[in-house]
Amino acid sequence: MAIVWPCPLPVDAYVAAGRKVEVPRPACPSCAGPLVFWSGYWRHVRAAGRCPKIFVPRVRCGPCRVSHALLPAFVLAWRLDVAEVVGAVIGQVAGGGGGVRPAAARAGVPHTTARGWVRRFGARAGELGVAFAALAVDLGGEAICPPAEAGRFALTAIGAAFGAAASLPGWLAVGLWRFASAVSGGRLIAANTTSPFLIVGSRRFMPPVPLLPA
Ligand SMILES: [Zn+2]
Question: Residues with Cβ within 5 Å of ion ligand 1?
Answer without folding.
Answer: 28, 30-31, 33, 61, 64
